[in-house]
């Protein structure tokens, strides 16, 4: 046990160091390359130059947002896999993307709400409402919210909301112009102001998530056994659903629907720590941040000087991985 603890701690520290390298690489690399010296001078000897302005107003906010969004989506994906007992599940199963998109399009179409603050809160509320709707629907019946019922309810509600969204976009060009960039999923052009609104909720969700590792370990032994050991499985499920809503909903509200992060990262982490959720949760958060930072850096070079939305880059990276997992039955051998 002690050897496992030391080895896992060493790997976790290595991942944190890799995250730091990726974070600073995100600040320094791009169409306008800069240096670490310039980064330091931005804070110690700011001169208003183009490089200093880019670092302060574009690169640093972008790296912070990518880190927070990547970690949040990865942890939310891990919890969705716990809830549904499906290793290919993601936050979209709860209608996160579909609910957020629909409420934004509805607000633009009928109320002409187009401010950044309104968009963030509407997408967050839409994600939360659709997720609660799915959980309430799947809880009906004598068996409660079983993994299969959650999955079926989520897919059905997401399909319905997506159809409504597409119908509204077809008839409303203004809404299409406003929401198209957001729908692609991107950390480009996002300001820290948009993150600050939801960051306190996300941080609280992170802290609670780290405290649930042992409870999830017991829960994954089987509901009957976990109940026999005195665990309130219904409360744990509700807690996990709320955490998914806060983490995925907050991430989507800031950066739009960025797919596959919540599927890929937990599977990668399982190679290091198997299914010990006391370790999986922190590992998943760090690796999720690393993945989105690397994807964002890659998106700057794919079509340079134009930039590719990071949501498209994660899809390109994740699609082969997803196919591989599906062929292996959802697990890495």
UniProtKB/TrEMBL annotation:
Keywords: Cell membrane, Membrane, Transmembrane, Transmembrane helix, Transport
Main localization of the protein described in the UniProt heading: membrane
Annotated membrane topology: Multi-pass membrane protein
Record InterPro entries: ABC_BtuC-like (IPR037294), ABC_transptr_permease_BtuC (IPR000522)
Family named by the database record: Belongs to the binding-protein-dependent transport system permease family. FecCD subfamily.
GO molecular function, one term: transmembrane transporter activity
Gene Ontology, cellular component aspect: plasma membrane
Compartment(s) of residence: Cell membrane
GO annotation (BP), single: siderophore-iron import into cell
Family annotation (Pfam families): FecCD
Species the sequence originates in: Gottfriedia solisilvae
Protein's name in the database: Siderophore ABC transporter permease
SUPFAM superfamilies noted in UniProt: ABC transporter involved in vitamin B12 uptake, BtuC (SSF81345)
Taxonomic lineage from the root: Bacteria, Bacillati, Bacillota, Bacilli, Bacillales
């Amino acid at each position: 046990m002690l050897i496992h603890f030391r080895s896992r701690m060493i790997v976790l520290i290595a991942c944190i160091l890799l995250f730091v390298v990726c974070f600073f690489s995100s600040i320094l690399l791009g169409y306008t390359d800069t240096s670490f010296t310039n980064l330091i001078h931005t804070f110690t000897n700011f001169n208003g130059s183009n490089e200093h302005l880019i670092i302060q107003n574009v690169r640093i906010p972008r790296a912070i947002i990518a880190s927070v969004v990547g970690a949040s989506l990865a942890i939310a994906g891990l919890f969705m896999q716990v809830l549904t007992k499906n290793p290919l599940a993601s936050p979209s199963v709860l209608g996160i993307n579909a609910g957020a998109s629909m409420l934004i399009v509805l607000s633009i179409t009928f109320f002409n709400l187009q401010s950044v603050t309104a968009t963030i809160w509407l997408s967050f509320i839409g994600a939360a409402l659709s997720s609660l709707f799915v959980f309430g629907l799947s809880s009906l019946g004598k068996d409660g919210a079983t993994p299969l019922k959650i999955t079926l309810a989520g897919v059905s509600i997401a399909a319905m909301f997506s159809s409504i969204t597409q119908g509204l976009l077809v008839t409303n060009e203004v809404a299409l112009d406003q929401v198209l960039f957001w729908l692609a999923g991107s950390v480009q052009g996002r300001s820290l102001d948009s993150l600050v609104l939801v960051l306190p909720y996300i941080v609280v969700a992170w802290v609670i998530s780290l405290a649930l590792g042992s409870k999830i370990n017991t829960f994954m032994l089987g509901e009957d056994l976990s109940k026999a050991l005195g665990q309130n499985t219904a409360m744990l499920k509700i807690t996990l659903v709320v955490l998914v809503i806060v983490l995925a909903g907050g991430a989507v509200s800031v950066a739009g629907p960025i797919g596959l992060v919540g599927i890929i990262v937990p599977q990668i982490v399982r190679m290091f720590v198997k299914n010990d959720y006391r370790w999986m949760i922190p590992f998943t958060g760090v690796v999720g941040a690393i993945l989105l930072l690397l994807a964002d850096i890659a998106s700057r070079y794919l079509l340079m000087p134009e930039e590719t939305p990071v949501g498209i880059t994660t899809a390109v990276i994740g699609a082969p991985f997803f196919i591989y997992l599906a062929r292996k039955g959802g697990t890495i051998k």
